[in-house]
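Ticket #4471: structure export looks truncated?
Reporter: QA, pipeline team
Priority: medium

Steps to reproduce: submit the single chain below to the structure queue and open the exported record.
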Amino acid sequence: MQHGGGRSFRYGQCRGQLLPHSHFYPVGNTPAVCLTHPLPPEQDAHLLLLGCGDARNVLFTIYADLRKLDFTCCDLEPEIIARNIVLFTLLMDDEQNNNLQKIWNLYYHRLVDQDSLELLREQASKLKKLAATTDLWRRGEYGSMLRFLDSYTLTQVSQLWDFYSQRPPDGSAYENQQNLLHQEFQEAERVRSQIVGSNSMLGGLRSTAPVSTIAHDDLSTSYRRYWTYGVADPSQEANGLDNSLNPMLGTPNAALIIHHATDPVLDFHLATGYAPLSSNSPLKPNKGEDGSFTNACYQTAFVEFAAYAKTFRCARPRLTIRFIASDALALCHTLQHMNNTGNSEAHWYRNSQTYVPLNLDSNDFNPRSDHPAPLSFDAIDTSNLADHLGCINLLAAAGPLLNRKPTSTLSTELLVRCEGDLNDYLKDLLLGDLPTVALLFNLTPIQYWTGTTATSVWDERQLNIVLQDSLGEYNTRCRYIIQWKSARHSSQETNLLNDTTIPLQFEQPGLTNLLYQLYLRMVEDESLPVLATSRKELASGPSGFYTRASFVAILGLIHKSDLVNWSVFIRELCLLITRHHSSRSMSSYTSPQEMFVYLHMCGLPLPSDYELTPYRPVKGMPCPLQNWKTIPPTLCITIVVPRTLLGFLKMANPMDGSPIFHVVLNGPQTNGFGKLTFAGVRNSESCVLSVQHDGEPWTGIAPMIVSVIVPSSIIRQDRSMSTRVTLGLKPTVPVQRFMDELGQGLAICQSSLKDPNVLVTKHRPNMTGYQSISGNSVSPCARPKELSMYQSTDSQTHARVHVSLDKDLKVKCITVHVDIYAGPLQDKLRSKVAVSVFQDSIFGVSIRFQEGPLIEQVQLPCPVTMTGSETRIELEASYVEFRAPVATRSELSSRPDNFYWTGIYQQRPIIYNPHYISLDQLPILDIEESVKLKWLINDLADMWSETERAFRERNMATNLRSNFKNTLLKLFVDFAGVQDTKHHKPFSLSDPQNGGLFALIFPANLRLDLPHQTVVLDVAIIPLSNNSIHKITSLLSTIETVRSSEIKIDERESLLWKHTLPAMVERCRTWKHKRACEYIRAEKMPLSLETGDRYICSCGKGTFPAGFWSRNKGDEADLWRLMSKHAIRAAISPCFSVPFVERQYTLPLAKPGPVSPAPTDNPPTKPTGLDGKRGLCAMCGKTRQEAGGLRECNGCRVAEYCSRECHLEHWRGEHKGLCRRVDRAGSSM
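Actual output as written to the record:
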């Protein structure tokens, strides 16, 4: 396509990290998670950690899981990897556990003693020698377990180990190290003082969940200790300032500054320091003789660290940990390219601030390697990179790397500074309908469809509500993790090249409109109405994350997955986009040309009207590149920018992030500091650029080099090479401060094509080809036909799934089309044997003859309802077509099978949710100290959404979810005794109208589910059926003497429990299913929902750890001996609502009154919030009239009390941590 005359065009934009300082995160600021919790226990796990950060998630996963684990750890900063390897190797070497305190000091403290420092120097020197070459490292003592994906990363971390190893005898090298460390720590303290001042960092409270209301003071003390004395251990506080600077917390890169919220204890689950634990509990901190301790945060963290160390050493034979220092998106797209082509040369730079190519040159990518590196993964954790890279960019890059299994999961953690409501933010995360857009990446948000999660966010939300009261708006970081499952999976083991999943296809008009709307959202900051919008709206918009490369990455996946008739789809889409850009609503420099450049780079077919084609110069026709034999469709323009023009960046606020650069021609873009050289004649066809990276971008002397790919038509039409090339800043709210220096256009430098600081080449510097986006994949039509479609093993059928969208561009209905080929099935069809469609599960249907064999079993990308469905049979064409509407939210919420999904995959029972759990590693709460468990009420009350709470308060028994949560509440509250109730053991579930008792539940322990910030009941279950009840008649009579508690429920809830209990058993099992497992024989889970039928398999009966019931004496111990052989272990978790599905109920901040296990006609008599029930005592609930008057809290001016005694008691309990007087001091999170 030709450019319009006289118009300016922008090509490329890049958020390069070009500020003088950027944040360094040596330790995390959120508690560790278990990376394998989506996976069944027998499955060895390949795990990808993007933005891996410190070692906490790796260590906690190893602590919580006994399987074989293969971690691939990617982080932008080599400092993170160097630190982690030092930690891992020190832990391996410390076989007698003699150096644990020193190892802690080195990994976490800013100031360390000489003994610890000497241990670091010795270890770093040892590692540096082993890393002399890749072969030497591979053959060394750590090489079989700790491996590198590329030689460049090994070189980078080796240089850091050299930095760590410096000693005083090393002279100037040691002096330089010490001077640099002093400068870095002083600058970090300056920045911290500027941002935090004397305030507290309340964000750390999430590490104490679910008991955060009582940990505020300790966390504040811990934070101040760390930044004053450089240590987390109070016993080292006195000597802290006399200690030496720790190079493990520093870096040779002076641009990296330790983040101002850093506090080592936040890596750990601190609830064990505040909740009462039983004497035999794992992770129980050591207390003083008086049963208390003053340094709860550190003691708790160190006990957990010690448990990690012990498990890590024992787990060494089953571990492989791989490392790479690169940008997360660059790694993912390179792995996609390797999956699709087998070639590692994907032409990505290591990150957007350097010209060092990403070259995965490890021998582990050789299929014959002894330690082959995975190219696809069972679980992918992206940390909170979605906050920095954009969720769509992450899903497009990492989603295709998931193994095609139903349990494969990609996790995105959001730790965003919300300018508005969390619910609304999450709903708009993908710039469109969440589950519909997710299908473009072959993903489904599991929590969206179930509307349930076993993860609590109560502490997180309450912290935000308190700060909202103080600040007048939502302006705090709110953490939420979304789990994305593979939407389509194969029925057999497969790799990504041999994709045997059932094809998914969209109707072309709907998909075209969906992509067009996505495009408009991605470039909305270029439209004049949006540019004129308010400062707040512009600042909180999504446009800063996305470029046209983001959009083309989605198109690449659509083309690769064959989701639509590509030629029709892309023509209509291009037409819509070009029409949009010709409208007056767009900024003068915008153009779709950048999109066409990316489409060309990806090799995606375009209509001839939009195709970029090569050009052969014709003699006699003026052309600035006349001597080129062939001018390719695109060319690279490289600009050399003197560093004197970049001084304005020193005025930038690091809290605003780095400005976004773009190239405007009157520009895909990369920038970085370095020395530019070229071979060949300038601007000739043979000219090749090379950039030598400057490792000191702000203290060095090299200029900044900026490269951008443009259509060659721009250059070949400019006979005089006078086209103006401008490098500028993209207009955003934070960069407005630079307008005084840069002018209204925010131009940094202006040149023309003929200027000596502008060069034109075929490819970008240090590259010989186009950057691969979405794998630059082979077209589906180019793959062998048998690999691009699903066929059943007998090859008699071929199934396809079609998706239709409604006018709001949401998935409306699903159509399953099954072609039946010549053979017995076709003969049966043509003989007019009746065909029926059965809904096997919320996500699956079976098409079968009424009397005869299965035709096809299909896993659907969305849950459907049989109401309004239709089946069409064509005898001549030999196909069956089933069409069903997608289930509505009200239909899903009322289905007993839509709380917890279970299934059979490859002859194994699996669960989709809730998460798998390792009970024996979790702390045990001491329920004898129930007075210290009052925080449990708030956590459990958070199960209800606003809608469910309304049903509950109106005493309406028609809401299935509310009723189910009432039953859960009774189980937890009665067993814990937090409302002065007796500890009922056992419980029985009874449906009086349908056979009576169907389950006995024997709670053994109440445990802290640490990574999910809640609790879990460790129980034994006896599922009752007609066949089993006679075996335990005597047992039932015995139970009558042991204070049993019968919970009566209706038929719908009993069906829900028959779905729930098998999932709760499956999620915590430590045993293997037998060959004769009833689930596998029946090919379903649960086995049956009919009254009196068995619904749980018998494989795990009688399998319990030693001492499971040791706490019980007398009659209860006798009872356990009777019932244990009939019982199965299970893990029952609370069932929380999901914020982007239903608005969550706003929970109380004041001390709550009793929460009844079932609805009552009487309204609650105690306050329901800090600012909720005016006129009641926040402690005892007396009215103003009953108390003869109330007095306000002097701090928050909201909570009211009837007496000084009530005020003091409430202050000591919970109000101290929540009063606005305290929280106002901690508004920086």
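Status: closed, not a bug. The export was complete when the record was re-opened. Leaving a note from the reviewer for reference: The chain has 37 helices and 38 strands.
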